[in-house]
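Hey,
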Amino acid sequence: MPAFEYKALNAKGQEETGILEADTPKQIRQVLREGSLTPLSVERVEKRESGTDSLKTRRAGTVKPSDLALVTRQLATLVSSGSPLEEALAMTAKQSERRSLRHVMSTVRSRVMEGHSLASGLATFPSVFSSMYVATVAAGEQSGHLDAVLDRLADYTESRQEIQQKMSSALVYPVILVVVSIAIVAGLLVFIVPKIVRVFESMNKDIPPLTQFMINASDFLSAYGLYLLVGVILAFFLFRQLLKIDTWKFRWHKLLLKLPLIKKLVRSANTGRFARTLSILASSGVPILDAMSISSKVVENLPMRKAVEDAAIKVREGTPIHKALEQSGYFPPMTVYLIASGEKSGKLDDMLERSAVQQERETDTLVSSMLSLFEPILILVMGGVVLLIVMSIMLPILNMNDLGR
């Protein structure tokens, strides 16, 4: 039974929207009238979804990672409990609070009821369900273990959401601290320093070099501060535009792999993501070459992604996975060792899982260490700048007798 998305007016004249199932739009309108609603529009969900790819992406692109993790867990729980797939999808759609997610799940259910596979229905929304997600579900359907695969996917999406939330929360305080610090220093130089040092300039005497430097810095910010701010913003947006060009983005990512501390963080984060994805795909029955190709797409660093793609070619030619990855020099030795152990013992998915856990822990440790160092360093720098400003003001006062002669 197809799904229809409707807009209607209630008895108070307020607009309501939702999704109902019926054979025809006429039945939907009848149901709405029986519920004291005046239908405005009734449109079949799948029909709208068959439009342009840009419309599809725009309509489905509002689904957040947290919502995806929640709906995956709900679907996994319902399927594991023995509920038919159609009922599980319908229940998931009804329980979704967000309109965009209801639209997605209703469309997937419609395709499943028309005879398509669940993976095919999910593939209708590439902006919501990644190729890894779709391939894993397809493998679960083919092997007859969809419930176990969905449960594994739910763990994966929840884990990724937790990591992203933890990273975002960890960066909030440092960002606020940087912005406030810059604002305080700029405020002192632009508004406070000029008023205090103006009295010293009127004496027509030599001013200490530090005080003169602060006066010059204050005059520069007063005259060109706005232009400087606009220039920084423009440079930031220009940098972001350059990163949309594959060549420049590749160069930037390659530079990150050479910077101290940063390179270790980038390697750990991308390796953990790659190992986790490859583990899920391998354990779900996806062929290893296809699994490596799909897993390369979750690697955000372009040189590392290319290394995985090159490794997949070498594996196709007969090279072991661990040797193909080791030749790039981008992947940590521990990960290479665990993959080698997994290949020898026949437990590659388990070793990949261990590698993912180890790399994720290392990433958390690195982020925590960097933030714990960054905060006191920033406070010391701020204290040094404020001290220089205070000294630039105090030196003329201490030398007042000399300036007054």
